[in-house]
Amino acid sequence: MISLAGRDILHSWGKFVFTGFGLGLLIGVTLIMAGVYRGMVDDAKVLLDNSGADLWVVQKNTLGPYAESSSIYDDEWRGIQSMPGVERTANVTYLTMQVRHGDRDVRSMISGIAAGQPGQPGWPPYLINGRQITRGHYEAVADEATGFKVGDTLKIRRNQYTVVGLTRRMVSSNGDPMVFIPLKDAQEAQFLKDNDAILEQRRRNAQNPEFTQPGAPGLLDALNHSQTNNPYVNSVLVQVKKGYSPKEVAQSIEQWKRLTVYTRQDMEDILIGKMIATSAKQIGMFLAILAVVSAAIVAFIIYTLTLGKIREIAVLKLIGTRNRTIAGMILQQAIALGVIGFVVGKISATFGAPAFPKYVLLEPMDSAAGFVAVVIICILSSIIAIRAALKVDPAEAVGG
Amino acid sequence: MSGKGIRIEGLRKRYGSGDTAVDALKEVNMVVAPGEVVGLIGPSGSGKSTLLKCLGAVIEPSAGTMILGDETIYDKGWKVKDIRALRRDKIGFVFQAPYLIPFLDVTDNVALPPMLAGVANKEARNSALALLEALDVQHRAKAMPSQLSGGEQQRVAIARGLVNRPPVILADEPTAPLDSERALAVIKILNDMAKKFETAIIVVTHDEKIIPTFKRIYHIRDGVTYEEKGEGRAFDL
Ligand SMILES: Nc1ncnc2c1ncn2[C@@H]1O[C@H](COP(=O)(O)OP(=O)(O)OP(=O)(O)O)[C@@H](O)[C@H]1O
Ligand SMILES: [Mg+2]
Q1: Mean pLDDT across chain A
Q2: What is the CATH number assigned to the segment(s) B6-229?
Q3: Which ranges constitute the DSSP H helices of A52-147?
Q4: B chain contacts of residue A11, beta-carbon cutoff 8 Å
Q5: Residue A98 belongs to what domain range?
Q6: Which of A65, A374, B61, B198 has the fewest CB atoms found within 10 Å of its own CB?
Q7: pLDDT digit string (tens) for A123-160?
Q8: A314 vs chain B: nearest CA distance in angstroms?
Q9: In chain B, which residues have their Cβ closer than 8 Å to the Cβ of A398?
Q10: Strand A104-113 vs strand A86-101: parallel, antiparallel, or unpaired?
Q11: Between B59, B85, B99, which is nearest A311 by CB?
């Protein structure tokens, strides 16, 4: 027996390739949507991996430092460092802002890293160009996605920084590329006010009788100084000694300090379960809509193709073709359409993904699941056409 | 093949029921011997297509008997289990419009009925090619139906009707779209095939050109058949 479906497809291949192409673009968008979600999850994991920390110590009862704001004193690390099981600690700050570069803005996450050496938590673990920060001020290491080059000058608040190194895949959980600068500079950047604001604050302090009591002459100066100084960081990153369980170390830090401590798993739950949960639902909605639209298109196309063949189907029935053969013909065509669509979709997703501004991670398993979904959708949408075909009366072929 | 031809006795067909019922066939009696080609002639609405549909096992009659070859296929109810296989193996159809399958080439259009019956592709194509040769269209064997002339399409359709060597061929206005020379050629082919394969053939027609060729003619009026001797003129092509 010859393949009736195959012959029909070869005969009207233009129609099939054309609709397969359209369907393919739709499937490509669907794969990209899934890839966007995977990319978000991956961004979050990469952020955690690259921070080099086992524990995140943050302000009590906050989900800091990424999902909520957190601020703790920048000398807390001393106490933490001396606790059993703690290998290394490092202060760190995070601040998402527009970084000025020439005449354009780049949205980035500025991370302040404590003086020290590479390998310390918070430091970019590897560079693709240039060197790490060596001076205490005004040097920056940027993710290549910012578009900066080694030697470029960029402006964060009022200060100019020189890019001394480039790193890769260092992104915030929003997918913004990171820029690393020395901790002191970052603390200042977080707190920095413009000169007018500082003058205004000093004027107000000086006019406030509580701060200018004759009995306490140094009070005003001390207040002014403390107000222009930022003794806070967002988090202390902790590396745990070998042989210690991060969970137990976290518990003992929480017990002795009035701080909240998260393990790597806690952090992942916060980032993936809370921060990107809404985006994930959004993407899920889109996936559902795209699946319905694809199904509607396949159903419509297969139904129209079948209606166009009613007379042939009547003849086939008249000369003794089984219903099973006719249903099989339509089913195979629907699946063929799905396969063409999937191939086009997979190719367009693979080539299109890098063009997206955020990281798109195309997981082979997602593609496999997508393929199965496409085939199932095609099978289900051919049901209407098959029902129409089975209802065709062979008497129609005999005519009046 | 199993050559007993067609025998129809007291066949009736009523469409619908109650007030709107139509008695399309009231009293049909017909005998067609193997190797014989008979004409079926009647005015519009007289029941010709209805008779072919009953005989072709496409619609169910209301009463009577139909015998194909040595098998009673209908006697107040279907007597065969697999009507589809009956249509495929025992009956060849030829229509006014050839209704070829547009996505199969000429050979496969003709080879399809044996393939559907489970014959191997190669064997089915060989019998198709043999028939195409007999009908003088073998040079178009690889063409698609849309590339054929009306007469060629009709001959391919006849080949498809004959390929399973059915004991019965039902042709509904097979010459309507053809000029008189081609129409006569088609009737000659049907006569030749009838003789060669012992097939009983019924040709429904209005066509004045071919009516004189039948040796026997059945007239049908208001669902009742009357037999008549035809001229049975020889073909002088
Ligand atoms: N499906 C049907 N339902 C009800 N009545 C029908 C149906 N098919 C045919 N008829 C009626 O049965 C009668 C015979 O119809 P039939 O089609 O057999 O005529 P015919 O001889 O083939 O006519 P024509 O030469 O115009 O094709 C007509 O009165 C027609 O209206
Ligand atoms: Mg008719």
Answers
A1: 89
A2: 3.40.50.300
A3: 76-81
A4: 102-103, 144
A5: 60-192+230-258
A6: B198
A7: 998 899 999 999 888 999 999 999 999 999 998 888 89
A8: 10
A9: 49, 52-53, 56, 58, 93, 95, 172
A10: antiparallel
A11: B99
